[in-house]
Queue: 2 jobs
Job 1
Amino acid sequence: MLTYSARERDPAGVEDDDERLPVWWYARLVRRLCPKGARVLDFGCGSGALLRRLLPDFEVLGYDPAGAQRHRCRTTVPDALILEDWRTLPAASLDLIVSVRGLERVGQPLATLQALAAKLRPGGVLVFAAANPGGLGRRLKGARWFAGREAAQLRLPTQAEWRMLVRRAGFEVVTVCGDGLWDAPYVRGIPVALQRALFRMPAILQLVWPLGRPCSVPTLGECLVVISRKPSHAYA
């Protein structure tokens, strides 16, 4: 049985990440990873900010463990299919699964990863972002780090632990990178607008340049971004 963390059972009072995370960056990344028309599930879709950006290019489905968020998402993205229970999806029915800070809040991440793998077709892609406790963002921000509350309540997995979990779930790890330092200010004495431009630039450049996938080192980001693939020879 899959279980969820306290945040997922009772989301009241938890800050909505939609306005804090670089949603546009993740939408561009998804477009790099799968062709137009692909069937994409946003696992932990929140209020639908990422779904709204993906809708013009993909057949999008969303799921969030919080009923209030599902209701909100149906209002903000009425053309997306918002699921009450993602586990009812047929096996091998998805081309890509994206999750921005959804998996780190799951009580049994390995069981969830295994169940998600079953929903992907052979060769399908899983891309997820999880707050990076070993990243430069946390070292610079200290107690003001954006995921500080979760770090105090949960044990956030490290990069090595996420790699192990993904492989144990049957995926092949394609790459692990950072999503950029998007939560300025980081240092005193420099205008916030200038810090935003400077600290976000590496993450922006790697998706502007014609690269097949992002390549920044994992520590240069607020979140770890894990891109993995279900083996093409895998059975559904």
Note: The chain has one domain: 22-229.
Job 2
Amino acid sequence: MTPWIDFPLVSSREPVSDPTARDAILRAVRAARPPETSLPEIAQFPAAEGDLAARFAEAARGGGAGVAEGPRADLNRMVREGYPDSERIVSLVADVPGTAPLPDDPHDLAHTDLFVCEGVLGVAENGAVWLPASRLGGRHRAALFLATSVVIVLDRRLVVPDLHAAYATLDVAAEPFGAFVAGPSKTADIEQSLVVGAHGPKSLTVVLVS
């Protein structure tokens, strides 16, 4: 039989820690800080030559994403042809009319067949696209993870060679959220067998427009 243990109740009005002890710990931490050192110099890699959009498309396909290319005037047609069975479409791109509005409750995005948004820039070396909060409807960034499929529209002129160039271009602190997205969700944790769409969108397509 497990003995009964009577724990004393602590009033919410009583302090749960000794502020004097806390201050002593913080002083000790400050006193033990190592000396400040300057940031390392990062080598400037030469910009890759050739068609950056073509290199981006190759890397994106290698990461499991689909890639479509064409003029912006054909954008709606390309999206519809790529996802003909999608009925509930939430679109943040004016050129692609959606069939459902952006819901007030982000949880409702779980019923979205297709989410369409526009990226800020693409990275040729790994096929990733930078998506800040302003391109995701503000607090509705959950659409990137809850929609069955995602389409990202990207101007082919906005492709940079590598992540060094991307970070030199972006102000990542300008918005409360941002993410580099490369391909649909995937995992190979079980028996090293690659599964696409295991814990997020089942497919992702980048539409390079001119």
Note: The longest helix spans residues 19-31.
